[in-house]
Design a protein that fits this description.
heterodimer, A: 4 helices, about 20% helix, elongated, B: about 425 residues, mainly alpha, 16 helices
């Protein structure tokens, strides 16, 4: 024989293929008649996201509908993926506001540092996961898009209450 | 018509029809009905397979098309019709096209001789619920059944693809090996029935008890061989997805691929029908004696067809159940199971049954309660011998081991004591 098939040694007196088969069939039959189906029927049912889920961003607004952002520059500084582009501007009253605020969601690693560092609680990562787009450009969210998002935002981990209770 | 009408009036509903015209018409109707039911059944089987596999794996299965996914086969068919038919450049086209057809037709042809119900009385004569009541019925099945391998082998060869060729080769080796056990396992059935007509095999079972009770080991061999013949798991080596891409149908696309798929299910239905007919009394209504002697009635026909379908569905379910339970055999396991176990067992069983029949006839015991009970007792003894005493991994298990259990446990004890063993006794029970 040119090719030797490696045959595992096993105790021959104890092994019964028939019995093993019957056992296996009993197991599969148990699952057949009593399945615990865990599949979520996606478009109809949706998965319950964790309150700490970190998805695509959302910018919160003031009562007047303006972004809360004061263009302090902390989030682009802290961002490890360097995905936030911020150009600050100043109005006649000396209030800073973002002239340009863009987040590249492709670069983002969803660490949530931007939300954690924001002194105005303006930028948040969202509890949201349906993000499909037809073009790559669509994944660069500008300020208008960020403020228009309505999904709930992430509740950051609280060191006082580590289990979220 | 005037010359025919006196003939029509003397026809007895309980006897075969007198007029050829009626015979031809009824045969054509039977052909159409059997073909339609068969094809629709095969389509629904693909859905059943997916549903059962899903349930076994705690999934939902297809449930988007139609109510509960019932129209999924139609969607699949439509998809397959709209897909592109690809022809590999190096393929030999005539055989490449012919192969799917060749694998499908034998499965369909076999159905011509399988009786699926009690005869149906009409005022023009009795209509047998079988498309063609061949006197050589069983031999016809063996002859046609072995043609099925051609489709697969030709598909493997004509694709000019190494995986397809390997699949085809495996298939030819496997089907030829198991064809022998398949044929041998049915010889006790024929010995008991004394006839190769499927109708008389069923009649014998209606009177003398189902063959599964009298010839359990023959049934077991037949069932395993039928699994191998239909290329179903655990014998799906010809298409082994994980080793051979998809084996013989790697290069096939669209409807030609679909035809292979249909052929697999068609073969499954045919094998199930054979098991029902040869070992489970065919359309015989259990626990009744009168369904074979008549008088026949429409209700009896309906009931017996229903019983036949129920038995058929049980076996189809068994096919799927086993498929989603067992992993695939290794090639050497397959061959050793076929040649070293199934064939000798089938041959020995023929001798035992033939000797038993001879002894009973010499002893002057005619067919009846005594005959059946002796057969049953011998059968129980044989089943115990084969499955309880001989079956200790020595012959039935295809996974041959060469080591005695005591020696293996000794080695495991040594391994457990060694400094390499992280936990004491680790692996001793595995």
């Amino acid at each position: 024989m040119a090719i030797n098939v490696k045959v595992l040694d096993r105790p021959i007196e104890d092994v019964s293929y028939i019995r093993a088969t019957v056992k296996g069939m009993a197991l599969t039959f148990k699952h057949l008649v009593n399945p615990h189906k865990v599949t979520v029927q996606y478009p109809e049912e949706k998965w319950q996201l964790s309150p700490r889920w970190r998805g695509t961003h959302r910018m919160l607004t003031t009562e007047t509908g303006k972004a809360k952002c004061v263009a302090c520059g902390l989030c682009p500084t802290v961002c490890p993926a360097n995905c936030i582009k911020l150009i600050p501007g100043e109005d006649e009253n000396g209030n800073r506001y973002p002239l340009l605020f863009e987040i590249d969601e492709f670069r983002c690693i969803f660490c949530g540092y931007c939300q954690e560092v924001c002194p105005e609680e303006a930028i948040h990562v969202g509890r949201h996961y349906e993000n499909s787009e037809y073009s790559r450009e669509g994944f660069v969210y500008d300020l208008e898009r960020l403020t228009a998002q309505t999904h709930p935002v992430c509740e950051m981990w609280d060191p006082e209450d580590p289990r979220g209770e | 018509m005037n010359t025919l009408s006196p003939l029509l009036q003397v026809a007895n509903p309980q006897l075969p029809p007198l007029s050829t015209g009626f015979f031809v018409i009824s045969t054509i109707v039977k052909m159409l009905v059997v073909f339609t039911v068969y094809m629709v059944g095969v389509a629904l089987l693909t859905l059943a397979e997916r549903k059962i596999s899903a349930w076994i794996q705690n999934r939902h299965g297809p449930n988007r098309v139609g109510p509960g996914g019932l129209l999924q086969p139609a969607a699949d068919g439509l998809k397959n019709f709209m897909k592109e038919e690809t022809y590999p450049e190096a393929a030999y086209k005539p055989l490449f096209v012919l192969a799917p057809i060749l694998s499908f037709i034998p499965a369909l042809t076999t159905w011509a001789v399988i009786p699926f119900g009690a005869p149906f009385p009409t005022r023009w004569g009795r209509v047998d619920m079988v498309v063609a009541d061949l006197p050589v019925g069983f031999l016809f099945i063996l002859a046609i059944g072995s043609l099925g391998v051609y489709g697969i082998v030709l598909a493997g060869w004509a694709s000019n693809n190494k995986y397809a060729l390997l699949g085809g080769l495996r298939s030819s080796a496997q089907m030829i090996s198991y064809e022998i056990s398949l044929g041998m396992s049915t010889i006790p059935v024929l010995l008991l029935a004394g006839n190769v007509t499927l109708g008389s095999i069923i009649t014998q079972q209606a009177y003398g008890g189902w063959n599964v009770v009298n010839l359990t080991i023959a049934f077991f061999i037949f069932m395993v061989a039928a699994f191998a013949e239909t290329n179903r798991l655990p014998f799906d080596l010809p298409e082994a997805e994980s080793e051979l891409i998809a084996g013989y149908h790697t290069e096939y696309s669209a409807m030609k691929f679909s035809l292979f798929f249909i052929a697999e299910y068609a073969n499954m239905v045919t094998a199930s029908a054979l098991m029902v007919t040869l070992f489970f009394g065919g359309w015989d209504v259990p626990f009744t004696g009168r369904d074979n002697i008549g008088p026949y009635s429409g209700w009896l026909t309906l009931l017996s067809v229903g019983i036949f379908l129920a038995k058929l569905m049980f076996f189809l379910f068994l096919f799927m159940w086993i498929r989603w339970t067992l992993p695939r055999f290794r090639y050497d396991q397959l061959m050793s199971l076929g040649w070293k176990f199934m064939l000798p067992l089938a041959l020995a069983y023929i001798i035992v049954i033939a000797a038993l029949i001879l002894i009973l006839s010499v002893a002057g015991i005619g067919r009846g309660a005594m005959y059946s009970s002796i057969f049953g007792a011998v059968n129980i003894a044989l089943v115990v011998i084969v499955f309880a005493i001989l079956d200790r991994g020595r012959i039935i298990s295809p996974a041959y081991g060469r080591m005695k259990g005591t020696r293996l446990r000794g080695l495991q004890a040594v391994a457990a004591r060694s400094p390499l063993a992280t936990r004491s006794g680790a692996g001793a029970r595995d």
